[in-house]
Amino acid sequence: xxxxxxxxxxxxxxxxxxxxxxxxxxxxxxxxxxxxxxxxxxxxxxxxxxxxxxxxxxxxxxxxxxxxxxxxxxxxxxxxxxxxxxxxxxxxxxxxxxxxxxxxxxxxxxxxxxxxxxxxxxxxxxxxxxxxxxxxxxxxxxxxxxxxxxxxxxxxxxxxxxxxxxxxxxxxxxxxxxxxxxxxxxxxxxxxxxxxxxxxxxxxxxxxxxxxxxxxxxxxxxxxxxxxxxxxxxxxxxxxx
Length: 241
Ligand SMILES: Nc1ncnc2c1ncn2[C@@H]1O[C@H](COP(=O)(O)OP(=O)(O)OP(=O)(O)O)[C@@H](O)[C@H]1O
What we know:
This protein is α/β, with parallel strands linked by helices.
């Protein structure tokens, strides 16, 4: 379980995350939605202890990330799919992480299989396509068999087959009782993947609901999302006329 308590982050005079209080529960995929710049990545970075909140706290299974004794075994994250040495093979990258986190080496082959990179595991990661990098990032997240998973825009760069694969994977991981928190700015994709939704705009909580709950009373889910976030968008084109 992930718990955010009045989580707040300012950059200069600007509030990126504004007193965000949310509980993300195990057993379902929870989508984390908001327009560009609404604070999703900043929130995820604070959950992972990569950014310090100015106020409030983010707890994973009741403790802060820094207090976890075996972090990779508790929480797996995909933040930046390019975060590996390009000259190293996918397998070597995973093996180094496993060794430094006291994870059995046999787990490397298992996660390569789960993400469909068994055949490409010995290639240099720098030669991977964007979709293969995303898959390697997912393999890193799964390496410690964690109960909590945090993924920032995991479908970025994936083709339709890859998008379906990640959707099924996330739903399967949640069905095993894990907490799965996945950010996106694509409401249509989230509607197919997530059961619960946390929607933010300009760093503030706009809705914490189910997919059906968000759509209720609107022509479409997209319409509901736009209405909810229209007052909380930093950038908007005017179109041509
Ligand atoms: N290191 C930083 N320094 C200054 N401002 C930052 C920094 N990181 C984020 N911000 C600002 O904080 C706000 C929230 O950004 P964040 O990246 O968390 O949003 P996001 O919802 O993940 O956006 P996107 O969907 O575009 O990835 C934005 O206004 C952004 O410009």
